[in-house]
Specification:
6 strands; 3 helices; alpha+beta; globular; 83 residues; 6-stranded antiparallel sheet
């Protein structure tokens, strides 16, 4: 079955994609590299697992812009959901 890749358009779009539970996302980096993440959202909190190093964080929605590069990646059109 082919993988469907969706460009994440906003934080609200990210939240709606996570309504089904944990989802795999990637940020495209310079040189064609990918930063893969598992993201879940529930009741104002994002749960993010960074697959490159196994680290995980739980952030309030208000913290995501300050403590991650996700909003910047969305703004640049470089944050995708793999389904």
């Amino acid at each position: 079955m082919p993988i469907l890749v969706l460009k994440v358009k906003s934080i609200n779009h990210l939240k709606s994609l996570c309504l089904k539970g944990k989802r795999e996302f990637c940020i495209t980096l310079k040189g064609g590299l990918l930063s893969r993440k598992i993201v879940d959202y529930d009741d104002g909190f994002f749960f993010i697992e960074n697959l490159i190093d196994g680290s995980a964080e739980e952030l309030q929605e208000s913290e995501i812009a300050e403590l991650t590069n996700i909003p910047e990646a969305i703004k640049k059109g470089a944050f995708f959901c793999e389904d």
